[in-house]
Amino acid sequence: MSEPMYLTAEGAEELRRELKNLIEVRRPELARKLAEAVAQGDLKENADYHDAKEQQAFVEGRIQYLENVLRSAVLIENNGRTDVVSIGSEVTIVEAGTTDEERYIIVGAAEANPREGKISNESPIGRALLGRKPGESVKVQTPAGELTFKIKQIH
Known about the structure:
By secondary structure, the chain is of the alpha/beta class. The chain has 2 domains: 5-75, Helix Hairpins (Orthogonal Bundle), CATH 1.10.287; 77-154, Roll (Chitinase A, domain 3), CATH 3.10.50.30. It is 40% helix and 26% strand. The chain has 3 helices and 7 strands. The protein has helices at 9-39, 47-71, 124-129, and strands spanning 5-8, 73-76, 90-95, 101-107, 118-120, 137-142, 145-154. It has a 5-stranded mixed beta sheet with strand order 5-4-3-7-6. It has a two-stranded parallel sheet with strand order 1-2. Strand 3 and strand 4 (101-107) form a beta hairpin. Helix 1 (9-39) runs antiparallel to helix 2. The longest helix has 31 residues, at 9-39. The chain is elongated and about 70 Å long.
């Protein structure tokens, strides 16, 4: 049995859309490319064939990954609880020594995207924030060194 993958409802829907596109669009597209490349003859030095095979392997791997994630998904929601950080919480933090507020949603690893303000519960910052309360400070070991953050608010 694989570990559960935590996903928001929106994240699960996004992965389902990607999976549908890979199965219904990309897979048939690559099958056509492969058939055309095979029709060209000699496959040993056929760049189109080798490229299509490589793309096909990537697409099939991604399909398997998405199917596994969705099969083991545990849907999370922000239940409105604002007394403790949990998966699904939206949190405002401030790095010690600065006044710049950063706002993140704690999500599962499969939908983490720091540029969109979504950090994984398995990331150093996400892991450090879980179970903490507003006003608490947490120390986090990051690739840039140890950082300290204060939890300003849970939304």
